[in-house]
Every structure is written in structure tokens, then in C-alpha cells.
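[Automated response] Your request has been received and processed.

Submitted sequence:
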Amino acid sequence: RAAAAARCGDLATAPGDPSLVLVTNVDMGSKKQGFMRACSKLIAESLGKPESYVAVAVTDNADVIWGGEDAACALGNLYSLGAISRENNEKVSAGVCELLSEFGIAGTKYYLNMWDIGDRANCCYNGKTFAG
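Generated structure:
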């Protein structure tokens, strides 16, 4: 395991899979692409990853309820090889919260789960895993 870690280097700075998948019941309209670009930049800066590896998928106008009501809300998952930590998570969460507020989504009406993929063999790209 130590040899594999040495070959891979520091996972927090290695290219990997920072990807955000977000669903909201709000119609983002023509501002959706700008929101996605802002999220991409935020994730790259917060996780210390090259933005060229960041992927963002947003589904707006979805059927989502919060607390049994049709309130403006969002649910998201952020995946990364390394770089998931309390400090980085707080940066991403604060930034996404601010971006979502532009669409009338209160910070109390969104969940963002952070997932460290862990083993590079669990993340695939271009027909192979990041483990090599």
C-alpha cells in the first residue's frame, strides 16, 4: 500500500475526479451555465485541483420537495480523489450556498454531501482507473 501511495503521490493534489452532481427544483434559466462555471472554479480552488479535471452536472426544474413542501431547494454530491476535508468542505459549502442564494435557495434548504472516493482504482477515466 505504501508503494502504491508513493507512485500516486499526494491524492489531495493529484488529478482525479472532483465532480459535483446537483439537483434543484428551481428553474435556473439562462443563468445555469454561469452557475456551473462558477461551481467548477470554486471546486478547483477549494480542493486544490486543476479545473481541467472538474466536472459539474446540474439538473434544474426537478421534482424535489423539502420538509414535505415545494420550497426552493437543492441536493448535491461532491466526489473527489482525496482533498475531502473539513476545511475544504466548508469552503465549497459556503461558496455553493452563496451561488444558490442567487436563485432564491436558502442555505437551510440545501444538502451537499462530500465523498472521498479513496482508492484510485475506484475512479475511472478514459477507459481505465486512476490507479494505472
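Summary generated for your ticket: Confidence is low (pLDDT under 50) at residues 1-15. The domain at 15-124 is CATH 3.30.429.10 (Macrophage Migration Inhibitory Factor).
If you did not submit this request, please reply to this message.
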